[in-house]
Each structure stands twice: as C-alpha cells, then as structure tokens.
Input
Amino acid sequence: MSASTFYPIGTPGQPWGAKEVDQWRARQSRQRRYDEQVLPRIEALADRFDLINYGELDYNGERFPLYALHNGPRDESLPHALITGGVHGYETSGVMGALDFLENHATDYSGKVNLLVAPCVSPWAFERINRWNYNAQDPNRSFFENSGVAEANALMKLVSSQPAPFLLHIDLHETTDSDESEFRPALSARDGTEYEPDIIPDGFYLVDDSENPQPEFQQAIIAAVEKVTHIAPSDDQGKIIGTPAVSRGIIEYPSAKYAMCASVSGARFTTTTEVYPDSPKATPKQCNAAQVAAVCAALDYALQNS
Output
C-alpha cells in the first residue's frame, strides 16, 4: 500500500486484530436513522403485504429489527421471487428502490408470482453509510454456512424457510466513488494486503453469475434501465471495475464462490445491480428509478421465460 493510499488504521501488510476493529468502529458515526427513514415505510406496507420479522441485530445494545414483506397468502402454483436491498447499507438506492417497488409496483404482480422482499438487510451499516457491519465484516461476502455474519445468517435462515424453490433473485447494489476513496483501501488495510486502485465506472451495470450465466435475462434488464439512466461503458481494456465485460454493461462473478447474496436462493435467474449515484448525469430519484426498472424487467423476463 503506497503512502498516498495508506489507511489510518493498522500496520501495512498486517491484518487487523480486535484493537484495530475497535479503532475502525470508533470512527463510524450514525448519519441517518433506520427507524425514521426505513422502518416507517416498511410498517406502512403491512396493510398490503405480510410483514415478516426474520430476526434482530443487537450491536452493543443497539437493536435493529429485520423485516421482509411477502405479497401473501402464498400460492404454491406460482413461482417465487426474492428481492434484496441494503446488503451493503451505504448503497442507498438499493434500500429506497426496493421500497419504491413495494409501494408502487409490487401489486402489479399479484396472482403472477410470490414475492419476498427484504429492503434493508444491513441496517447498522445503513445508518453509518458503510459497507461493513458492526464487526467490520462484509455481508456480501458472507453468505455461507456458519459465516458468523448476523445479517447474512438471518437472511439465509429466512430464505431456507420458504416452501418452494425460487425462480428469481435480484440483489440491489451501488458502486460509489467511496469504494475507491474509503472501502477498498479499508479492505486492504483490514486484510493486510496491497491496495490496487481501480476506476469507478460511470453508469449502471449488472453482475451475472459465471456459474449460471443468463445473458438474455441480463440484457433485458439493461434494455429497461437505459430508459432511466445511462449504462456504464467498458474501459480501454474492455473491463468494468477490473472485470471483463461479457456484454454491454454486464460482467460475471462466481456468486457462490464469493459468497455473495445473489447466491443465497439458488434461483435460475439471478443478478446483482450496480447503480452509480455519484455521476453528474444521475440524480437520487433516477438511481431509485433504475433499481425499480431493473426489478420490474427481471420479473417480467423471468415470468415470461419460466
């Protein structure tokens, strides 16, 4: 790690211990309120959806109830779809896009699909505008048995309790300038590895599962989203965020190998959205709308091709 990217916690080349995690935690301050900005909107939906309390986080006395909504009662003759937001709490449009979809579009799919929506998987990080949870863990690399990450464990338990396999899972994320200014340098410092700078793409892109690629599905989402916001171009090496683009605005990761949230359901159709909220060409409203457009396009394609 060069001097220009030195992270102010720990010793370069040495992984963090408990002392460094405590130092990191002391730097995190509440910047917004889950109980004011998210919970009231979830609770207001209880008259139209089944409200599921699937767990509670307790971080040093701070308690965060975890909620999902289902457009029940379940009809086992219909396919099942999972929508998740806020796995990385700082990625605001993932949370707000999931809520916007529930408030304005979810009823359009009544009688077509069983919807399960978890709008804010990581509320402590939502409040701190951070990627990690209270223990400096990344929930989106922790969806495996006995990971020890409370946010991931609670969601996995919820998903495994559902009575039928999922056709679709769309996980709503953002790629922000702070990924390079804060979160990737912090990751290198925490793990004692060398930080390698990258370029944040200007625009929306998708992450498909390289172990179960669904290119037509991804392309259908891109076609819908580009009506709302611009699609990220590949760089001069044909890459997006350091990974080769397999199509316009689409890259692939092995979701299960990386223990990403998109792997949790085992669905046929899966994707991770990546909105770019720091673009001068996009507003917060557009970012939320891009997430909604992605969800609707994903559902429409999956239902037509199931």
